[in-house]
Design a protein that fits this description.
The complex is a heterodimer of chains A (259) and B (332).
Chain A (H helix, E strand, L loop, with lengths): L4 E10 L2 E11 L4 E5 L6 H7 L10 E9 L2 E2 L7 H7 E4 L11 H12 L5 H14 L3 H4 L12 H14 L4 E5 L7 H14 L4 E5 L3 H7 L2 E7 L6 E8 H6 L4 H7 L5
Chain B lengths: L21 H38 L2 H7 L11 H37 L2 H15 L3 H27 L19 H25 L3 H9 L4 H30 L2 H6 L19 H8 L5 H31 L8
Helix pairs in contact in B: 1-11, 3-4, 3-6, 3-8, 3-11, 4-6, 5-6, 6-8, 7-8, 8-11, 10-11
Classes of the chains: A alpha/beta (259), B mainly alpha (332).
Chain lengths: 259, 332
């Protein structure tokens, strides 16, 4: 269910603009890896290369390789659509489909993969996914109501339920709590701890406390200046990163001296 | 100023009374309210006019009206009411043919421009579509008669030969589809006329789809087409209905193209490949108006009233369809 990711010498371009330069790192299965860094340093862009979502933007391309259990996601024979069915994603702002009910939202991805699913299987999957996202107790009596009727935090957990319903190998989270209040944030962070048992999780966050709380390993990205490419400065176990980072820039950033 | 502690320089209250821009704000409020009212007044005026002018014809008995108006022949089953019936049927039939043909094509064009075409091509195509909407209907009519109808004739013959067993495609009694100036031709030309409208509006609606929802679908492993079905169509549903209704509005009221193409007739026949079967309200009015006497004009206005009512009903129906699932709409 969970896979390891090895990134080798990855460059990300928007047309001719080099956005992220020469990133090499490894992400362990069944762990939480946090990407931190100032705005515009390319951490979200880099995250999106892990499920080829950056390709949605015209002109975006990469050089280098992303290996998922040894399979290069950028090999010619690999279809980005298939990649995304194995690498789920949760976005900054909760984005349940407004025209679908809560249950339909959970099943949206499953219906893509497997058009025919029996009624009882579907019901079971809705329940297990919503339980997995700690949302079941709150919504079990109104599964046929629109997903947009939920609060922001509930919507975000609905999006997580939707992502885990297709049983991905890896779950990417792009600042999943930045639009949420502290209580909802706590609920998501607790959830991340539970999801770690089954999935490889990569989370981008602006909140360093959050990175310290939820992640096993932390990667710090930085940018030399406007128009320059973002780079991976340092990656290490989270406690080490936050106590004794080896790079000066990392220490400056986590101690709040800039960024 | 009831407080005992007064600041040294107390400003008079009038200084807080007004501000520059207040007058302009007031003026704009009345201007926009007036514009809003104007549309209501216009609508009421049109409805009143139609009712008032149609009344002399409506209030007369069928026989009496038949004596005084040349084109109303109650003895041949063409009283005012019956003619209105035939025309309403013809109008709706031809408009429905037009919409059935135009809607899928328009949605396809709009999707291609909004989601498939490279950006530069999309822009050019967009302009082109807008230009098509500006072609006058007389030109479409001429083109229909001179180019399209002759071109379609062999196809009609083929349709009648092989699919004649389906009632609507039955050939005329002679067995040969020789004129091509039939309801289907009028429907096809109307379809071409409404495609620019429907596709221009749908394109705008599709472009408004929130990136958030498109990415949600793509990130789950949806293909482009699956993403369009999950995110774009549900979001644009009411917009597409609105676009289709705008198209239907033009198709219902179109005069010249239909007048020039169709061999008119007054029947309830389902045979869209046979001439002298159908006509539309607008084309009929244009046909009869130049030679109509006073009461004849009143009768024609009564037909116009019928067209007005149909259009109103169509719009109300569209509203109802759009509002039925508003709880689930993208607007939330």
């Amino acid at each position: 269910m969970s896979k390891r990711i090895d990134v080798n010498n990855l460059n990300v371009y928007y047309s001719n603009f080099l956005a992220v330069e020469d990133v090499s790192l490894s992400i362990e299965p069944k762990s939480v890896t946090a990407f931190i860094g100032p705005s515009g340093c390319g951490k979200s862009t880099f995250l999106r290369t892990l499920n080829r979502m950056h390709e949605v933007i015209p002109g975006a391309r990469v050089e280098g390789e992303v290996l998922m259990d040894g399979v290069n996601l950028y090999a010619d024979s690999v279809d980005p659509v298939t990649v995304r069915r194995h690498v789920g994603m949760v976005f900054q702002r909760p984005n349940p489909f407004p025209t679908m009910s809560i249950a339909e939202n959970v099943l949206a991805g499953v219906k893509l993969n497997n058009k025919r699913i029996s009624r009882s299987d579907a019901d079971d999957l809705v329940e297990s996914s919503l339980r997995g996202a700690n949302l079941w107790e709150e919504v079990k009596d109104r599964l046929d109501k629109p997903g947009s009727s939920l609060s922001g935090g509930q919507q975000q957990r609905l999006c997580i339920a939707r992502a885990i319903a297709i049983k991905p190998d890896v779950l990417l989270m792009d600042e999943p709590c930045s639009a949420l209040d502290p209580i909802s944030t706590l609920a998501i962070e607790d959830l991340i701890q539970e999801l770690k048992n089954d999935y490889t999780i990569v989370i981008v966050t602006h909140n360093m406390q959050q990175a310290a709380r939820v992640s096993d390993r932390t990667a710090f990205f930085n940018i030399a200046g406007t128009g320059k490419p973002g780079k991976l400065i340092e990656m290490n176990d989270t406690p080490t990163m936050f106590s004794t980072p080896s790079e000066k820039a990392t220490e400056d950033y986590i101690s709040g001296r800039f960024g | 100023m009831t407080t005992t502690q007064q600041s040294p320089e107390t400003e008079p209250a009038s200084d807080y009374g007004t501000h520059p821009g207040a007058a302009a704000n007031h003026f704009f409020k009345w201007l926009s309210t007036g514009a809003g009212l104007l549309i209501l007044i216009t609508l009421a005026a049109v409805a009143t006019f139609l009712l008032e002018e149609a009344w002399p014809a409506i209030s007369l008995s069928a026989a009496e009206l038949g004596e005084k108006v040349s084109f109303i022949k109650p003895e041949d089953g063409q009283s005012l009411l019956e003619i209105v019936g035939f025309l309403v049927y013809g109008t709706v039939l031809i408009s429905v043919i037009a919409l059935l043909l135009a809607t899928p094509v328009s949605i396809g064009i709009a999707l291609f421009i909004s989601h498939f075409a490279p950006r530069r091509l999309a822009q050019g195509l967009g302009y082109l579509i807008d230009l098509l909407a500006a072609v006058p209907s007389v030109v479409y009519g001429l083109w229909g008669v001179a180019v399209l109808v002759p071109f379609l004739q062999p196809f009609y013959q083929w349709l009648a030969d092989y699919f004649g067993w389906i009632p609507i495609f039955a050939a005329p009694e002679s067995g040969e589809v020789f004129t091509g100036r039939v309801a289907l031709s009028a429907g096809i030309v109307l379809a071409i006329m409404v495609i620019p409208i429907i596709s221009a509006v749908s394109r705008e609606v599709f472009l408004q789809t929130p990136k958030l929802h498109e990415e949600a679908a793509l990130a789950m492993g949806a293909t482009r087409w699956e993403m369009i079905r999950m995110a774009v169509f549900p979001f644009g549903r009411s917009g597409m209905i609105g676009a289709t209704m705008l198209g239907l509005g033009r198709a219902l009221g179109e005069t010249m193209a239909v007048l020039m193409i169709i061999s008119p007739g007054l029947t309830f026949s389902p045979y869209i490949l046979q001439p002298n079967q159908h006509n539309t309200i607008a084309a009929y009015i244009a046909l009869q108006f130049p030679e109509a006497n006073a009461l004849g004009v009143n009768s024609l206005i009564a037909m116009g009233l019928a067209l007005f009512v149909i259009t109103l009903l169509v719009n109300m129906l569209a509203r109802w369809v759009v509002s039925r699932r508003s709880e689930f709409s993208g607007a939330n």
